[in-house]
């Protein structure tokens, strides 16, 4: 028989958990949230082409790059009980969800100023605050699951949360500068951005209302035309 090189496992979504422990099972699903958020990013970028979502995703990728560098600089091993491989300081899951939840929170509370339309009433500040709290609690659950599953020590998870929080604040300040200095507006007007149909509406409009007013207007026109034909 021919000798073959041993196969490796792509552990992107491979999570170890205790099948006899329901909490461990829930934590295994929580570990998949970062991958799910990447799918959400890709879906929103493709469907809405919003500049704010593009900026947030760019920050998310930059945050992951920082985590990659920190792990290889610190070189701290994961807990001995963990069956996987790679360095554990800081936790990439904790850093990912902390950046996401805090960036979303700062956007909803400080940058997002939605205006009501004839067809839609946007979320109030209190509702946006509650949504932000839910996002932060969810991030805390994901971070805690890494400790429960023995993928990271508490110190590694706290370091990941701290790194994600610091980078989130820095990135939000950076994107605020890009907006106030006119760089975002300039970027949207470039040839490539116009060809890709990039727009910047979500700062003043809810994603829920994106295109809805135009849809309602089109329906009214169709009904008006149909009514006019019947009258004739």
How many H/I helices?
A: 9
Roughly what fraction of the amino acids lie in strands? under 5%
Low-pLDDT stretches: none
> How many individual domains?
1
| Helix/strand structural class | mainly alpha
Tell me, rounded to a whole number, the average pLDDT: 84
Largest sheet: none
Overall shape: elongated
Summarize the structure.
This protein has 232 residues and is mainly alpha-helical. 65% of the residues lie in helices and 0% in strands. α4 packs antiparallel against α5 (125-148), α4 (92-111) packs parallel to α6 and α5 runs antiparallel to α6.
Quickly list its features.
mainly alpha, elongated, 9 helices, single chain
Question: What this model shows, in words?
Answer:
It is an enzyme of class 3 (hydrolase). It contains 9 helices and no strands. It is 65% helix and 0% strand. Helix 3 runs antiparallel to helix 6. It has one domain. With 232 residues, the protein is mostly helical.
List the helices and strands and how they pair.
Layout: H1 22-30, H2 33-48, H3 51-74, H4 92-111, H5 125-148, H6 154-180, H7 183-188, H8 191-195, H9 212-231
Protein name: Dolichyldiphosphatase
InterPro entries: Dolichyldiphosphatase_PAP2, PAP2/HPO, PAP2/HPO_sf
Enzyme class: hydrolase
């Amino acid at each position: 028989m021919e000798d073959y090189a041993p196969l490796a496992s792509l552990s992107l979504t491979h999570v170890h958990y205790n099948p006899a422990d329901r909490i461990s099972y829930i934590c295994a699903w929580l570990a998949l949230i970062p991958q799910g958020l990447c799918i959400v990013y890709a879906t929103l970028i493709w469907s809405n082409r919003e500049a704010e979502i593009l900026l947030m995703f760019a920050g998310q990728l930059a945050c992951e790059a920082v985590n990659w560098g920190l792990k290889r600089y610190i070189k701290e091993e994961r807990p001995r009980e963990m069956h996987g491989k790679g360095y554990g300081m800081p936790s990439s899951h904790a850093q990912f969800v902390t950046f996401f939840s805090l960036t979303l929170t700062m956007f909803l509370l400080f940058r997002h100023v939605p205006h009501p339309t004839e067809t839609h009433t946007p979320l109030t500040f209190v509702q946006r605050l509650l949504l932000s709290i839910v996002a932060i609690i969810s991030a805390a659950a994901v971070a805690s699951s890494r400790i429960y599953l023995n993928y990271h020590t508490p110190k590694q998870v706290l370091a990941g949360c701290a790194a994600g929080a610091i980078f989130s604040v820095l990135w939000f300040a950076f994107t605020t500068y890009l907006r106030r200095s006119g760089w975002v507006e300039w970027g949207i007007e470039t040839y490539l951005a116009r060809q890709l149909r990039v727009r910047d509406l979500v700062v003043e409009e809810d994603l829920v209302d994106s295109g809805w007013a135009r849809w309602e207007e089109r329906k009214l026109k169709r009904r008006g035309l149909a009514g006019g034909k019947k009258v004739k």
